[in-house]
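Run log // design_07
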């Protein structure tokens, strides 16, 4: 295998890592040269433009890519759909005059291999996926209680209670608690609060929120297996991968053997089915720096690229690993999910070996009052919404 610095003339294939040069991407240096108001006004929902370009690189060189060709089967992907950090193989010709590589075809790693011996449940069993509970917030308390009652079998029709009895696992994918931030000192004088009064109010809010979270998870863990993942706004490290929430946060829930804390990302096996998921930071970051017709496409692409967080550490904070990349997907899951999304979405894709993967965007409960129910037997999936008249 030759290095990029010595590629031959004519038609050839290159293998390397993609780097995206984004014109709208915020500059770290400009954050120190501009005022807070200027930086706030420049924040954009997306950092994608027609002037973006791609280069392919290895340890020795980088070559700009020109997407001008068309494959025999399908059109080449647009620059806006590809992020920094993915490994690809490109077929084309080296244009020495313009100093670029003209791409004719591009190949991604594709879905990872599936486990050879899969034990599919013979009877109907279910997994409940939820996220963004934000326990401690004033709103949707009744919706949250309805959700708990449904899962433990105290609400719904006879059919609902029959399904609840078959729930094998509940997974909370991050942002479980909301903690009130300390008030800005510049505006505190308008409410005539001293610093001590403000600190006391904040500390009391933190204590109440953590106690409510513990009681909520105790109610669930007393009846079903429960896994709690950390999220972007939870009290743990903000960089990926996020560590487990400390068990001393859950004095009551931790007493149950059915209660477990997991990392983010999280990979587990439930009754023979392999589940892989995140709390949504990787998908949210991809949505800022790439385009897609539907949000579920971001989830599918990461599986096709075999990487959970290709934009880390470029635009997504992550811990520096020396000996390997923990975000590489080595085994194809049966269920692949991302939490804290604006709306529910799902899709079935098929791998090279005929295995099917259920993709799920788990809605933010604090916005939608919804959870997702997945059948482990046939991977059927549906959204369940809990609405109460009282907020």
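design_07 sequence
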């Amino acid at each position: 295998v030759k290095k990029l610095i010595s590629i031959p003339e004519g038609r050839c294939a290159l293998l390397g890592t993609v780097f995206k040069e984004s014109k709208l991407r915020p500059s770290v240096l400009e954050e120190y040269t501009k005022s807070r108001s200027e930086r706030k006004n420049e924040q954009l929902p997306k950092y994608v433009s027609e002037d973006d370009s791609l280069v392919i690189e290895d340890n020795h060189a980088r070559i700009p890519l020109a997407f001008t060709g068309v494959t025999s089967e399908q059109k080449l992907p647009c620059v806006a759909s590809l992020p920094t950090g993915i490994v690809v193989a490109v077929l084309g010709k080296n244009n020495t005059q313009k100093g670029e590589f003209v791409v004719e075809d591009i190949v991604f790693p594709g879905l990872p291999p599936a486990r050879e011996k899969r034990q599919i449940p013979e009877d109907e069993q279910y997994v409940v996926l939820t996220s963004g509970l934000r326990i401690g917030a004033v709103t949707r308390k009744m919706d949250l209680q309805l959700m708990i009652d449904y899962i433990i079998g105290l609400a719904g029709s006879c059919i609902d209670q029959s399904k609840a009895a078959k729930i094998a696992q509940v997974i909370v994918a991050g942002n479980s608690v909301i903690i009130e931030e300390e008030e800005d000192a510049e505006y505190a004088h308008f409410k005539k609060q001293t610093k001590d009064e403000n600190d006391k109010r904040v500390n009391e809010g933190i204590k109440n929120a953590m106690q409510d979270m513990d009681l909520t998870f105790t109610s669930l863990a007393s009846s079903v297996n429960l896994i709690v993942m950390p999220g972007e706004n939870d009290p743990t490290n903000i960089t990926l991968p996020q560590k487990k929430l400390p068990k001393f946060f859950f004095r009551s829930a931790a007493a149950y053997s059915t209660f477990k804390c997991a990392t983010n990302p999280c990979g587990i096996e439930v009754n023979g089915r392999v589940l892989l998921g995140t709390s949504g930071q990787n998908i949210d970051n991809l949505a800022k720096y790439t385009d897609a017709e539907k949000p579920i496409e971001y989830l599918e692409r990461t599986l096709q690229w075999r990487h959970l967080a290709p934009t880390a550490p470029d635009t997504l904070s992550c811990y520096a690993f020396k000996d390997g990349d923990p975000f590489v997907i080595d085994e194809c899951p049966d269920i692949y999910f991302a939490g804290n999304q604006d709306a529910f979405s799902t899709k079935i894709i098929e791998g090279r070996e005929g295995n099917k993967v259920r993709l799920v965007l788990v809605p933010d409960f604090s916005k939608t009052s919804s959870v997702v129910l997945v059948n482990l037997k046939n991977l059927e999936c549906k959204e369940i919404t809990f609405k109460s008249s009282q907020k």
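The two ends are 63 Å apart (CA to CA).
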